[in-house]
Amino acid sequence: MSRVEEFEELRPLLFSIAYRLLGSVSEAEDAVQDTWLRYEATPTKPTSTKAFLSAVVTRISIDVLRSARVRREEYVGPWFPEPLLADPYEDPERSAELADSVSMAALLLLERLSPLERAVFVLREVFGFGFPEVASAVGRSEAACRQLAVRARRHMQDGRPRFEADRHERDLLAGRFFDAFKEGKVDALQELLAADVQLVGDGGGKAPALTNTVFGSGNVSRTLVGFVTKMDAIGAVFEPHETNGEPGAIFRARDGKVVSVLALEILDGQVQAIRAVVNPDKLGHVGTVADAWALRREANEALRSTDAPGTL
After folding, report:
1. Interatomic CA distance for residues 236 and 80, integer angstroms
2. 182 and 278 co-located in one domain
3. Within the chain, where are the H helices?
């Protein structure tokens, strides 16, 4: 097998490692491309191509992550990962586990870890690498990596929800949610939301989004209905689509351009959180991005005689 064939075979794994470390589709793709360039320039073939490439993409991602963390401290409003509509890592036996590790909630928990803790956790706990491989990838001793893994697991477990959602029940509830959302039924939506549900938007200061998190089933259901009312007024549509392994949707303008991507966090039979990515810089990989400011002006003009709630 040629180097190109070996690399292409491992590309999905390399992207999945990089995305979990970086929370960015574009940065993960760049890290994978840089990994190929380094592999291509390597004079001798490594003993284990998988271990070598995984180590290279991990080191590149750690460097990118360290600089990205500084940028995120200056980010305007809540920061969410770039939405991932399909994880290319194909492993049917572990598909559910891998989906859980790429959820918005899991990636936000990973943000609490140091770059090294994050790398060790992803390689060891998500992809099952042995500690010798992990140590080689992050440039630390096996003993140090074991300590990093313990700290990372503790942080992740402390932040995880107490009740995991059954995937079939989760999908059924999501279907009911989007039916109620599409029909603009406040009461039906409210029944599906946890009492302390949160609605949060990530606009990054580059698109209209919620200026503050909306809390509570009543407030969130009314805000959602106000949003869908405005969407209807300008002919925009939404299409349910799994997002980061969770139920979600893509909102599009009438011309098909992307407005935002939504992800639902469903646990214990209720919607616990609704996260909307509106920042155009994070949506380019989904499709051509709409001018959200222009759409908001159009919607407000169409509904200027009403007092519609805030937008996502």
Report:
1. 23
2. yes
3. 3-22, 25-41, 49-73, 95-101, 104-110, 115-121, 131-138, 142-159, 167-183, 186-192, 217-233, 292-302
User: Do 104 and 241 reside in the same domain of the chain?
Assistant: no
Kindly state whether residues 132 and 273 are assigned to the same domain.
no
What DSSP string runs through 141-210? -HHHHHHHHHHHHHHHHHHS-SSPPPHHHHHHHHHHHHHHHHHT-HHHHHHHEEEEEEEEEE-TTSS---
**119-150 pLDDT, tens digit each:** 999 999 999 999 999 999 999 999 999 999 99
Position 210 pLDDT exceeds 80: no
Q: Is residue 310 part of a domain?
A: no
Q: Does some domain include residue 311?
A: no
Counted residue by residue, the chain has a size of 312
Residue 203 in any domain: the answer is: yes
CB 277 within 8 A of CB 83: yes
**What are the backbone angles phi and psi of residue 241, rounded to the nearest 5°?**
-160, 130
Q: What DSSP designation does 285 have?
A: T
pTM: 0.90
Rg of the chain's alpha carbons, rounded to an integer? Answer: 21
Number of domains in the chain: 2
Residues 115 and 25 placed together within one structural domain of the fold: yes
In Å, the largest CA–CA distance within the chain is: 71
Are the beta carbons of 311 and 208 closer than 8 angstroms? Answer: yes
Query: Which CATH number does the domain housing residue 239 bear?
Result: 3.10.450.50
